[in-house]
Design a protein that fits this description.
The chain is mostly helical. The protein is built from three helices and no strands.
C-alpha cells in the first residue's frame, strides 16, 4: 500500500523458498518415524505446475510493479491450477 512492492515480493518469494528448501525435506525425514511415509517423488503434471509457477512469478516480478489486473491474473492462474489438480489427480 505504501509503494513497498519489493518488500512484499521479497517476503512472498522468500517464504515460498523457505518452505520448498527447508520444511518439505524436514517433513520427509520426520515421516520416517511414522507408519505412513511421505513420498518425495512428483508426477510429471506436478513438475509442470511447479515450473509454470516459477515462470509466472518471474514474469510478474520482473518489472517490480503491480496493479489490480496482475493480481486478478494470479488468482485466475491459482484457480485453474486448483481445478486441474482436482480433476487430474
Amino acid at each position: 500500500m505504501k509503494d513497498k512492492m519489493d518488500l512484499s515480493l521479497g517476503i512472498a518469494i522468500g517464504s515460498s523458498t523457505q518452505i520448498a528448501l527447508f520444511v518439505a525435506p524436514v517433513l520427509v525425514f520426520l515421516s520416517l518415524f511414522v507408519p505412513e511415509h511421505l513420498n518425495p517423488l512428483f508426477t510429471s503434471f506436478e513438475l509442470a505446475v511447479i515450473a509454470l509457477a516459477i515462470l509466472i512469478v518471474r514474469i510478474i516480478s520482473i518489472d517490480g510493479e503491480s496493479n489490480w489486473y496482475e493480481g486478478v491474473r494470479l488468482l485466475v492462474a491459482y484457480a485453474i491450477t486448483a481445478v486441474a489438480f482436482f480433476l487430474i489427480v
